[in-house]
Design brief:
The protein is of the alpha+beta class. The protein has a single domain, classed as Anthranilate synthase (4-Layer Sandwich). Strands 1, 2, 3, 5, 8, 9, 10, 11, 12, 13, 19, 22 and 23 form a 13-stranded mixed β-sheet that branches. Strands 4, 6, 7, 14, 15, 16, 17, 18, 20 and 21 form a 10-stranded antiparallel β-sheet that branches. The longest helix has 25 residues. The chain is globular and about 65 Å long.
Length: 494
């Protein structure tokens, strides 16, 4: 455990980092359940897929500070940067270079150097924040009326390292704290111990291939969807754009606890960038497999997804079907072209904030397997310029190119023209922004909003010149099935 002092300056609140390492078996669903019962909970990960994504899961609750920005307000980035600058580490112990990695005998004596969240903000950025970056039409209906930005500042949280199977209890000591940092760490340890006493039943399986769509409402009908795909293709033929991400939103009644849906998704559709957010009047359940940006040690990377094929159970003929779908995605010229366009878009975005000559394609196109789908992905990165702020990064890169199209601005104009309701959190980003400059945000796909006793799930796909409207419709349904199956399964249990 570390110890230290804190101080306050006129410009920001200075924090001291405290932590305790625990080697213990951890029950991920039980810890999710424990924190979901606390006010203002945020969970990042909490499922085994984190091991192959960014390694760490986080649990936090009872925020010390909340920043919100809503539609109709002005200067989001000025206000956001002021909030992000409000807290800083008191000395180098919060920085990547200030913590020891090994004690000379191979054992960790401090927090891992790379990737771990050391404290700061957790929350989301809605897709419509893009309207404050570019001048766009505003013809869509905002029927959910959620904040465009909502971030919570937490002074304590639990981190789990899925590779080393180690827990870190992490606390920030703030000026005028009544509770000592040892008390914060002890409270976290009690929550961890409490979770180990919880026995949760395994979520019941659902038949993803047989969804009861009679209970599902949509913001558009199939005829409208097919007509809009043809309209988008005309824009492509006319040279306005190369591709557009077009989506539709599904809605159904929901009266179960939101965490039940998170349990279900984490069990049957575990995703590397999953998240659970308790916003009070709403909850977010995200099973996103896509990383928007990761920032660590001044290096930024993004990992767009373009190209999807179904993945089914390997019982009976499933293994042959999966092999066929995998090979089809590997060889698809359409999907290769889609991802190549987005790679170019992301390279251009990253070049605006990175040192000259450092941007590169870190990982070329590859196929990754998930519980219900195969995805084609690539990774692009670079070294950030020293003067770049987090808001500079948002202005350059948000929203992610994989869920807009190319060129980005014209694509967003056409999305506004063809989609009837605002996207909100869908295709925005969820994750953390550390006060040490680190960050990890997902692309909020496979994401469900629960509010007003309803659940909203939205799915889409990239439309290009040779897109088949029926096939594109089928793709959105394929992507929606795992989300809707979970909702209907949980509702039957409730």
């Amino acid at each position: 455990m570390t110890t230290g002092t804190v101080a306050r300056t006129d410009k920001c609140i200075l924090c001291k980092l405290h932590y305790k390492k625990i080697r213990a078996a951890i029950n991920l669903p039980a810890l999710n359940e424990t924190f979901a019962g606390l006010k203002g909970a945020s969970i990042i990960g909490g499922n085994p897929a984190k091991k192959d994504a960014d390694r760490f899961s986080y649990w936090a609750a009872c925020p010390k500070d909340v920043f919100e920005f809503r539609a109709g307000q002005k200067e989001p980035f000025e206000k956001l940067q002021k909030a992000l600058d409000k807290y800083r580490f008191e000395d180098c112990q919060g920085n990547h270079t200030g913590l020891p990695l090994h004690n000379g005998q191979g054992n960790h004596t401090g927090l891992p150097l790379r990737g771990i969240f050391r404290g700061g903000w957790v929350g989301y950025f809605s897709y419509e924040l893009g309207r404050y970056i570019e001048r766009l039409p505003e013809t869509t209906i905002d029927d959910l009326e959620m904040p465009l930005i909502r971030l919570c500042f937490y002074d304590r949280f639990i981190c789990y390292d899925h590779i080393e199977e180690t827990c870190w209890l992490i606390a920030l000591q703030l000026p005028d704290d009544v509770e000592k940092p040892e008390g914060k760490l002890a409270a976290l340890e009690k929550l961890l111990a409490k979770s180990q006493e919880i026995l949760l039943p395994e979520p019941r399986s659902a038949d993803i291939e047989n969804i009861d769509f009679s209970q599902i409402r949509c913001n558009i009908d199939k005829d409208y969807y097919l007509r809009m795909v043809e309209k988008i293709k005309r824009y492509i033929y006319d040279g306005d754009v190369y591709q557009i991400n077009f989506s539709q939103r599904f809605e159904c009644d929901y009266n179960a606890r939101p965490i039940e849906l998170y349990h279900w998704q984490n069990h049957y559709n575990p995703s590397g960038y999953a998240a659970y957010i308790d916003g009070g009047s709403f909850h977010i359940v995200s099973a996103s497999p896509e990383m928007f940006i990761t920032i660590s040690d001044g290096v930024i990377s993004t990992k767009p997804i373009k190209g999807t094929r179904p993945r089914v159970s390997e019982a009976d003929q499933g293994k042959q079907i999966n092999a066929k779908n995998f090979d089809e995605l590997v060889s698809s010229e359409k999907e290769q072209a889609e991802l190549n366009m987005i790679i170019d878009l992301e390279r251009n975005d990253i070049a605006r904030i990175c040192e000259h000559g450092t941007r590169k394609v870190i990982q070329p196109r590859t196929i990754e397997s998930y519980p219900t789908v195969f995805h084609a992905v690539a990774t692009v990165g670079g070294e950030l310029r020293k003067e770049i702020t987090f808001c500079d990064i948002l202005r350059a890169m948000f929203p992610g190119g994989s869920i807009t199209g190319a060129p980005k601005i014209r694509s967003m104009e056409i999305i506004d023209e063809t989609e009837p309701t605002v996207r909100g959190v869908y295709t925005g980003s969820i994750g953390f922004i550390g006060i040490d400059g680190s960050a990890c945000l997902n692309i909020a796909i496979r994401t469900i909003i629960i509010t007003r006793e309803k659940a909203f799930a939205q799915t889409g796909g990239g439309i290009v010149a040779d897109s088949d409207p029926q096939a594109e419709w089928n793709e959105t349904i394929t992507k929606a099935r795992a989300l809707l199956a979970g909702i209907q399964r949980v509702m039957r249990i409730a």
